[in-house]
């Protein structure tokens, strides 16, 4: 476990998470489809989620990508996930992608989870700069980035291509290690 509070805990993805992760992703497909299409495509059945978890655990061991799971402390539910991706160990930079289930949206939990995961990634993994990309209309994500201490840097033109849609401009938010010069 990398973090625990009164309401939720955060841990690296584990095989035992398969059923609850699949439940989160399948039950929130409509909510997540625009910005997490690949993750959803890889988790359509329990079996595909089990395979996804095996691949992501291997990826974490190789330090290519890390998936963190947010567990509700009052049930067995997984309420969200945070993916640390696009890692560049030479310049100590990575990017967060995240989602939270509809029932838990708007409670500030994801901002707290991003703050806790940011601390872990900086202190334990040694990254110095973290990024979040969000579309300006995804106000929940923008508010999560800002509420987690990330600062807006730029608008990136045609940065993201949703399934069967035109490319979207994305807002870049960044957090740098406080003692970084």
Keywords for this entry:
single chain; 181 residues; alpha+beta; Aminopeptidase; 8-stranded mixed sheet; 6 helices
Walk me through what this model shows:
- Keywords: Acyltransferase, Transferase.
- It comes from Gelidibacter gilvus.
- One of its GO terms (molecular function) is acyltransferase activity, transferring groups other than amino-acyl groups.
- This protein has helices at about 20-25, 30, 35-40, 45-60, 110-125, 140-145, and strands spanning about 5, 10, 65-70, 80-90, 95-100, 130-135, 150-160, 170-175.
- It is of the alpha+beta class.
- It has a single domain, classed as Aminopeptidase.
- The chain has an eight-stranded mixed beta sheet with strand order 1-2-3-4-5-6-8-7, sandwiched between helices.
- It is globular.
Strand and helix map with partners:
Layout: E1 3-4, E2 8-12, H1 18-27, H2 29-32, H3 37-41, H4 46-61, E3 66-72, E4 78-88, E5 93-100, H5 109-125, E6 129-134, H6 139-147, E7 151-160, E8 168-176
Parallel strand pairs: 5-6
Antiparallel strand pairs: 1-2, 2-3, 3-4, 4-5, 6-8, 7-8
Helix pairs in contact: 1-4, 5-6
Number of domains: 1
Please mark out the parts with pLDDT under 50 across 5 or more consecutive residues, or reply none: none
Strand content: 25-35%
Examine the coordinates and then state which fold CATH places here, giving the name of the CATH topology.
Aminopeptidase
Organism: Gelidibacter gilvus
Domain N-acetyltransferase: 13-151
Family: Belongs to the acetyltransferase family. RimJ subfamily.
GO molecular function, one term: acyltransferase activity, transferring groups other than amino-acyl groups
